[in-house]
Amino acid sequence: MRTPSFWYGPRGLLASLLAPLGAIYAAATARRLRRPGQRMAVPVICVGNINAGGTGKTPTVIALAERLSAAGHRPHVVSRGHGGRVAGPVQVDFTRHAAEDVGDEPLLIAAFAPTWVARDRAAGARAAVSAGAGVILLDDGFQNPAVAKDLSIVVVDAVAGFGNGLCIPAGPLREPVATGLARADLVLAIGSPRACDSLLAAWPELDGTPLITGRIQPRATGTSWTGQRVVAFAGIGHPEKFFATLRGLGADLVATHGFPDHAPYTSAALTRLEREARQLEAMLVTTDKDAVRLPAEFRGKALPLPISLAFRSPERIDGMLNSLFPQKQ
């Protein structure tokens, strides 16, 4: 679905009318979280959010997997596989899985660490441990009680913040900010230093919760974007962030198209995009997450822009990760 515009604006009439339904949603989440999670034989790091939609969880999971691997650990990622039809638990395999099988995010993450898709998170975690995982990264499991967490990281977009502060469907929240932060061990705010400062000023609930900041940056590809005419398209939580990244690289965006998060691309939509790029004498560019959802025959027609997360205080996140492995210190 597309993110409703009123979720991130001032609280208007529609948000107020839907607020009672949001309170019911929040209460249902709270009831679900009362169940104790299953403890695993290895550390479990949860990367989640309080907002619905894109906050930067996928690049965060990848960045943590890279840091854990560099430190000599064996991270495995467990994901629900949103948008995929496989119930699992099953390990993602590029040779036999597509995005419609396991979801786009697990397919992307699997390039960096062994990745499991499981509707039953506990079953997925057990399968990962049996396969040799030394640490489990739970992708988007903050509101799922199936697995006990040793470190819970809440990711927030510093610009969007927590929207209008209301729960679904009145706002973007899966649970109230204060309730979610009470369970968090760490908040990762992604954005410019100014945006992160504004986030702290706007949300006093963040006081008392350890916070680090980071930024999304393109991975080096050797492509020069300065002056390059681009038709950009993205089906992510906030497509405008991707478009802003391209503009920041110097690209000339002659057209942009935002699609719903995780939406499959129809042949008609792809034909229109290809025709438009040809008519405008521009390059078709998309996100790396969108690229894995494209049909194989179309992938060579759209250039993906891979991104990564850079922590501003990497020593702090490394310290928290190392604390989970006392024998490695």
From TrEMBL:
Coiled coil: none annotated. SUPFAM superfamilies: P-loop containing nucleoside triphosphate hydrolases (SSF52540). Pfam families: LpxK. GO terms for cellular component: plasma membrane. Keywords: ATP-binding, Kinase, Lipid A biosynthesis, Lipid biosynthesis, Lipid metabolism, Nucleotide-binding, Transferase. It catalyses: a lipid A disaccharide + ATP = a lipid IVA + ADP + H(+). The keyword Kinase applies. InterPro entries: LpxK, P-loop_NTPase. ATP binds at N51, A52, G53, G54, T55, G56, K57, T58. GO terms for biological process: lipid A biosynthetic process; lipopolysaccharide core region biosynthetic process. GO terms for molecular function: ATP binding; lipid-A 4'-kinase activity. Transfers the gamma-phosphate of ATP to the 4'-position of a tetraacyldisaccharide 1-phosphate intermediate (termed DS-1-P) to form tetraacyldisaccharide 1,4'-bis-phosphate (lipid IVA). This is Tetraacyldisaccharide 4'-kinase.
